[in-house]
Write a structure and sequence with these properties.
Layout: H1 6-10, H2 14-20, H3 24-38, H4 48-56, H5 67-71, H6 87-97, E1 107-112, E2 117-121, E3 124-128, E4 131-133, H7 137-140, E5 144-146, H8 151-158, E6 165-172, H9 176-179, E7 186-187, E8 197-200, E9 209-216, H10 218-223, H11 228-243, E10 252-257, H12 276-280, E11 291-293, H13 306-323
Helix pairs in contact: 2-4
C-alpha cells in the first residue's frame, strides 16, 4: 500500500489490469487456472495490487517472486512435501509440549489487559502474559474480544475470507504414468473440467501411485454442489486426459473440501478484493497490546503456503520475546 501506484492498482481487479495490459482473454483464462489452486479464486475477485503482491511473494529476500515459481514443481511452490504428511509436524511438537497441549477446545473469548491475557475455551480458561492467535483472520474476528478489536482491524479480518478449494486424490497400485515418461502434472483450461491443475502425489516409496487434483474458484462453485459420484467421475476423466484411460480405474478415491472445515471455511488463503489493501492493509499484522497474529496469511513471502506459515510463526515468536522483555 506504500507503492506510488498502489491506489490505481488497488482500485481495479487483477483481471481488469491484465486485460488493460493486452494480455487477452486467453491469458486471463490461464491466470484464472493458476489462481484456482493458488488461492481458490479468479482474477476478477482479487485486486490487482493484491494479485501482484501475491506473485511477488512467491520467492524470498534473494529470489524474486514469479508465476513460474508459483506453478512450478522443481524450484517452485509444488517442489517439496513433508514425509509422512504435514500433520507429523504438529504431532512431534505435541510430543515435546506434552500436557500443555489442549485439543478439541475452540477459543470463544479473549480478554487482553495491560498485565496479561485470559483465553476462554470450551475446556476452560487459561491465563498468560501474551497470546498468539493463529486462526485464519476471518475466523479470528468471530472470537469475542474484550476490549473489542479496533474497528479497522476487525474490518480487514472480515474481508480476508478464504478462497474456495477442494483437493481430490485417486489412488492406484502403482504410478503407471511414469512408465510412459509422464510427470502426472497437468493444467486445464476452458472450464470444461472440475480440475484446474493436477500433480503426481505418489509418496517417496513409489507406491501406491497417487494423482491429486485441485478443484478451486469457479470450478469449485460449479462442481461442489453436484453429487459426489458425478464429481468424482469428472475428476477421473480429467486425470485420464493427461495420463491415459488407466486413470479411470483407481483402487481408491477421496476428496477434501476445505470450505466444509469449520476451522478454515475455505482455502488455501485469504483473497483481498479491490480497495482493501490500501485502506486497511496496514492493520494485518499490527499487535493488539499483548495479542499477536501469526499464520500463512500474515506473511509477505509465500502467503498461504507452509513456508509463509513458518516465517510468520518465527516473526510472532520474536515479537512476543521482545514485548515480554526478552524472556521467552
Amino acid at each position: 500500500w506504500e507503492h506510488p501506484d498502489a491506489g490505481r492498482l488497488d482500485a481495479q481487479s487483477l483481471a481488469t489490469w491484465l486485460r488493460r495490459g493486452a494480455i487477452g482473454a486467453g491469458g486471463v483464462e490461464l491466470i484464472d487456472t493458476l489462481l484456482g489452486s493458488a488461492f481458490g479464486a479468479a482474477a476478477s475477485e482479487a485486486s490487482a495490487l493484491y494479485g501482484l503482491a501475491y506473485v511477488a511473494g512467491a520467492g524470498d529476500e534473494i529470489h524474486p517472486g514469479s508465476l513460474d515459481r508459483m506453478i512450478g514443481v522443481a524450484g517452485g511452490a509444488q517442489e517439496s512435501r513433508v514425509v509422512g504428511g504435514s500433520q507429523v509436524i504438529s504431532q512431534r511438537m505435541a510430543e515435546e509440549l506434552g500436557d500443555s497441549v489442549t485439543l478439541g477446545a475452540p477459543v470463544r473469548r479473549i480478554e487482553h489487559r495491560a498485565t496479561g491475557v485470559t483465553v476462554t475455551t470450551d475446556a476452560g480458561s487459561f491465563d498468560g502474559e501474551e497470546v498468539i492467535v493463529t486462526a485464519p483472520p476471518h475466523l479470528a474476528a468471530e472470537i469475542e474480544w474484550s476490549p473489542s478489536l479496533p474497528a479497522h482491524q476487525d474490518a480487514l479480518f472480515r474481508r480476508m475470507a478464504f478462497g474456495t478449494l477442494m483437493k481430490c486424490e485417486a489412488i492406484y497400485e502403482r504410478p503407471f504414468w511414469r512408465e510412459d515418461g509422464l510427470s502426472g502434472q497437468g493444467v486445464f483450461r476452458g472450464g470444461g473440467t472440475p480440475v484446474c491443475s493436477m500433480f503426481d502425489n505418489t509418496p517417496p516409496s513409489g507406491s501406491p501411485g497417487i494423482l491429486m487434483g485441485f478443484v478451486g474458484g469457479a470450478g469449485w462453485r460449479k462442481w461442489a454442489p453436484r453429487p459426489a459420484r458425478e464429481r468424482g467421475g469428472a475428476v477421473l476423466q480429467s486425470f485420464a486426459r493427461v495420463v491415459g484411460p488407466a486413470a479411470l480405474a483407481p483402487v481408491g478415491y477421496f476428496e477434501k473440501d476445505w470450505t466444509a472445515e469449520r476451522c478454515t471455511r475455505g482455502g488455501p488463503t485469504a483473497v483481498l478484493g479491490p480497495g482493501v489493501l490500501t485502506t486497511l492493509g496496514q492493520w494485518r499484522d499490527r499487535p493488539l497490546g499483548r495479542v499477536h497474529w501469526a499464520g500463512a496469511e500474515h506473511s509477505d513471502y509465500w502467503n498461504g503456503y507452509m513456508d509463509g506459515a513458518v516465517r510468520s510463526g518465527e516473526a510472532a515468536a520474536r515479537a512476543v520475546i521482545a514485548h515480554s522483555g526478552g524472556h521467552p
